[in-house]
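Slide 14.
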Amino acid sequence: MYRLFLPLMMLLMTSTNLAQAVEISRGMMLSNSCAACHGTDGKSPGAIPSIKGKSAEFITTSLKEFRAGTRSSTVMGRHAKGYSDEEIQLIADYFANIK
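Slide 15: predicted structure.
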């Protein structure tokens, strides 16, 4: 009986861990810095504008304008300056595809 118990437990533990595994994309990782103000799903909990439901094009354009200083901001210009074009696109795609 004990010979079957250990392999069965190992199988159950492995399958449980696999079922709980979530693929974390680079866009998702980069979006973590947005969560404090814009919410983890892009829906702002307060006065900060929500980005949930915005198109990737809108988010990309906005971040590039903040980065260039052509769109006024208090904090977003500083945040956006830290991102490359590729990273901006990854963030925009992530938020645009949240259901």
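Speaker note: The two ends are 47 Å apart (CA to CA).
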